[in-house]
Model the fold of this input.
Amino acid sequence: MLLADRVESFLTQRPYCVLVRAALQRMLDPAQLDQMFRDTATRQNERELLFSALVEVMALVVTRVEPSVLASYRSLRDVLGVSDEAVYQKLRGVETGVSEALVRESFVTACQVLKELKACDEPWVPSLRVKILDGNYLQKTQRRIAELRTMWDAPLPGRALVVWNQQTRLLERVFLTEHGLASERSLLDRVLETVEADELWIADRNFCTLGFLFGLADRDARFVIRQHGQLQGKPHGERRRAGQTAKGEPLWEQEVRIHWQGRERTVRRITVELQQPTRDGDRELHIFTNLTEEEADAAKVAELYGRRWTIEVVFLELQTALSCEVETLGYPKAALFAFCVALLLQNTFSMLGGSLRSAHGTEKVDSEVSGVLLAQEVRKAYDGMMVQIPPPYWEELSTMSLTEYAQRLKDWAARIDLTRYRKTPRGPNRSPPQRKPRSPGGRISTATILSQRKTKK
Done:
């Protein structure tokens, strides 16, 4: 029986689950994952357990379909054919290079589908490929490792730099280190190795180093990066008024000369006078850029830096819709691998977002659809759907052409009733009312209070 016949009832009742499985069939294609592992791994082997099987185990945990690695293993035990200890040993040894490659491959696959769907956004700056760089350190884990059990200090399993691609809304790359206390700047040299001409990099002040700024400019790339307090430069020329932001905040512009290793460059510094101070008490933001005024005036530069928060929203989605940091995985390689599986799945959901935009329109999907409600449907119905429609029925999605596959996603996405996943609008934030002084005993009866309300009426 064909897949189309089997999924019909689920397309009526739980359509997004069908889309998710269709996307995972392509993104978690075992042949592609195992080949990537063979091309990348230098120490691990596949004698006992295939890498694709390990990804499947972790995907069930990250999507919260299963509550733990052990529960995920038990649900797949008959397919895996190895002991739970073998799975844990494999997790502890996944090389960071393999985890990074997992994210890169997911980006390539999802990007091809989005281009076929014509679901990519216009660049924020014409003719430039915009990327946002941000860091994330993994939260503390449980102290399951023997050496950690007697320590008060929070055990941090690693740190990551993540690159978000603006036109595709996909996470393009990740750079990992197993040292949880490592500086984000220690990974910038690796980031520079991937930079190409005609790219625009947006980042916060932690990445404002002379080496990074010069490195971007040397590769004919542009940058919009907040000035770090320790990187001063020499002001050149007069500071002039340059308009205001969309919020009405005054803007100023001045050229600044920076020096590094005997070389000099002149950059633009855009200053934003803030209406409200930042969390650190700053009342001005200074932004370095090498964009020309023809490419972006001062207001545009300030707007571009403000859009840096887009990647923070992506991180928030990772934490709410997915379990991107598995606190039971104390070994750095295992924890970083789980984080990268979450990035892969985030790219999967972003690709599905592209299919929804292609079928229903970008404005409607962006303004109305709740990612949290979509994720809730997956957690509630995915496992039951896979019982009714086992993996062999989905294999045809792996072999069909890219054009046919993208059209299938779009057709299924068109059948989704978006009102089922509508965001709940929130009103303005209000200050909490002032509480009355504490009564004797500090306790009241709710029923008594409600009876008084009825009496007043």
